[in-house]
Amino acid sequence: MMHFSIPDVQEINDGNGSSFIGYNIHINGVFHCTVRYKQLHNLHEQLKKEFGSDNLPSFPPKKILPLTTGQIDERRSLLEKYIQIIGQDAKILSSDLIIGFLLSAQQETSCEKNVEVSLDVYTMNNYKISVRVLVFDRTDQVLTKVCQNINLPEEYVKYFSLFLIREDNGDTFIIRKLLNLESPYMSHKSVKENNKVFLRKSYWDINFDSELMNDPIALNLLYVQTVAELEKGWIICTRDTRLHLTNLQAKLAKKDYIRFAATLKYYGYTQFAPCFCDYPNPRTRVLIAIGDHELNMRIIDSGQHFKEGCFKVTRMRCWRITATHNKIDNPANSRTNSTTCLELAFEYLMSKDKLQWVTVTSDQAILMSLCLQSLVDELLVKKNGYDTKTQAAKRGPWSYMKRDGSSHLISLDNLDINTNNKTTTEGNRIQDTFSIRKLQEKFSIVSFKSGRGIVENHAFEGIGDENL
Fold first, then answer.
1. What does the alpha-carbon distance between residue 342 and residue 85 come to, in Å, rounded to a whole number?
2. Can you list the pairs that 146-152 forms with residues at least 24 positions away whose Cβ atoms lie under 8 Å?
3. Which residues pair with 24 in a beta bridge?
4. Taking every pair of C-alpha atoms in the chain, what is the biggest distance, in angstroms?
5. Residue 64 has what DSSP assignment?
6. At what angle do helices 239-250 and 254-261 cross, to 10 degrees?
7. Which residues have C-beta within 8 Å of that of residue 303, sequence separation ≥ 6?
8. Which of 166-170, 426-430, 463-467 ranks highest by mean pLDDT?
9. Higher confidence at residue 402 or residue 216?
10. What contacts 104, CB < 8 A, 6 or more positions away?
11. What is the DSSP letter of 446?
């Protein structure tokens, strides 16, 4: 599942003396594309044919007369609710129709041409991998090219993903994991912060480490990530521990280095920037890390000392993301900008028969939610033994309506909204047809029911006081 939002709108000139309202779609907290009402309506009509009306939310009705400012905001809110419900249905969300629509909308919004360009992707020690990609290449296609560039065997690609990461004054923050419904080149270009595309491992269970150690390239990727996370302080170690690791590093004992690091606190965790929590007291400043089946919280006091606690994911009954949009009018570009306050709230089993909501306020709240989701996915796959080797969905052409009302038949295998036929360009011919099914995509067949913005945790265990 993903978190969709439409925090603001903008007025766009069509080049013929007229203008229309564009709705700015954000995915997982980051701007993705601008679309018209009629484009979303056309998508809804196609979704009805594929999934049936009963499996879809109601779509905001058409209006005959021009909309007032208040009606535009009402429509924005209704469209936001519509796409949020769509984003909670794994079957619909993983369909080629949705992926193709979002890819096409990103292409149209960017006004880019599908030409070959150079994209820099970095390992966690800032080693640069330059690859030639097409502007419209999807994330899985770019990941394939990056892994081929460094000679990583095909069977190990599923353990890695591409991430947008921001580096600011020596601090490093994960913005988000790149998805298959976007172009890494365009997404990287659209984010204004000082960010880079990084190649990182994308699993929680550290038992997978031993599999990566069987290949020298995969081993080196895991090793440089471990070294980088220790240097950044994401993994905690004492002075003596660091000395031992330095000795292992000098001996180039990479496997021993990783195995020893895996015994340390926060190995395999995702770290987040300082934020605020209402537990144990309102506006408590905390550091959050997620991993090893828990959300770990360190409370920062005035002397920069820490008090540590943790919330097990198996004791979270459900959680939700709340986004509050504060509008800022910007007449210069006819766009209503907004600032967004994000909150992650989860209902936690504090003791037998006592559930309590805990709320975290953070710009990274959506990333936290996605981390919790993927943790539970891995837990359920391990616990219930789901067969994750599912067949890939059938790919076929469908219609994408452009802003000007014209439509084109497109498919994921040849996605270019600027052409009316199936003739491939020189750039299309060099595209890789190999499709990667990463671990998190395999896990998407299990785990959640959602409604009204609440994610219900199927790994929740209502256990007694003696186990809490």
1. 18
2. 146/121, 146/199, 148/432, 150/217, 150/221, 151/217, 152/215, 152/217, 152/218, 152/221
3. 8, 34
4. 75
5. S
6. 160
7. none
8. 166-170
9. 216
10. 400, 410, 415, 417
11. S
Over residues 396-405, the mean pLDDT reads: 80
Helix residue ranges, H only, 251-388: 254-261, 365-384
Strand 316-330 versus strand 335-351 pairing type: antiparallel
Residue 289: partners with Cβ closer than 8 Å, 6 or more residues away: 234, 266, 269, 270, 271, 272, 295, 296, 298
Helix (H) or strand (E) holding 312: strand 306-312
Please give the single-letter amino acid code of residue 257: Y
CB neighbours of 15 closer than 8 A, spacing ≥ 6?
none
**What tokens does 26 get?**
């954000």
Using DSSP's 3-state secondary structure scheme, residue 205 falls into: coil
Instruction: Measure CA 424 to chain center.
Output: 30
- Hey, what are 370's tokens? 């996605």
DSSP state of 423: P
User: Does residue 118 contact residue 131 with C-beta atoms inside 8 Å?
Assistant: yes
Q: Is the pLDDT of residue 454 over 70?
A: no
- Which pair of tokens denotes residue 399? 């219609």
- Tokens at residue 271, please? 């770290």
Where on the phi/psi map is residue 465: left (φ > 0), alpha (ψ -120 to 50), or beta?
alpha
Give CA–CA dist 368/344, Å, rounded. Answer: 8
8 A C-beta contact, residue 30 and residue 191: yes
For the chain, the average pLDDT equals 83
Token pair 């580096």 is found at 167
Secondary element (H or E) of residue 410: strand 407-410
Pairwise CA distance, residues 194 & 386, whole Å: 40
Give percent helix, percent strand, percent coil of the chain, each to the nearest 5.
35, 30, 35
Q: Could you identify the residue written with the tokens 């709705």?
A: 23
* Residue 93 burial class via C-beta count within 10 angstroms: exposed 0-12, middle 13-18, buried 19 and up: middle
In this model, does residue 463 exceed pLDDT 60? no
Cβ(328)–Cβ(336) below 8 Å: yes
Q: What's at 211, amino acid-wise?
A: E
DSSP state of 265: T
Residue 245 backbone class (left: φ over 0; alpha: ψ -120 to 50; beta: rest): alpha
Instruction: Count other Cβ atoms within 10 Å, centred on residue 153.
Output: 13
Tokens 């905390």 -> residue: 286
| Residues in CB range of 330: below 8 A, 6 or more apart | 336, 337
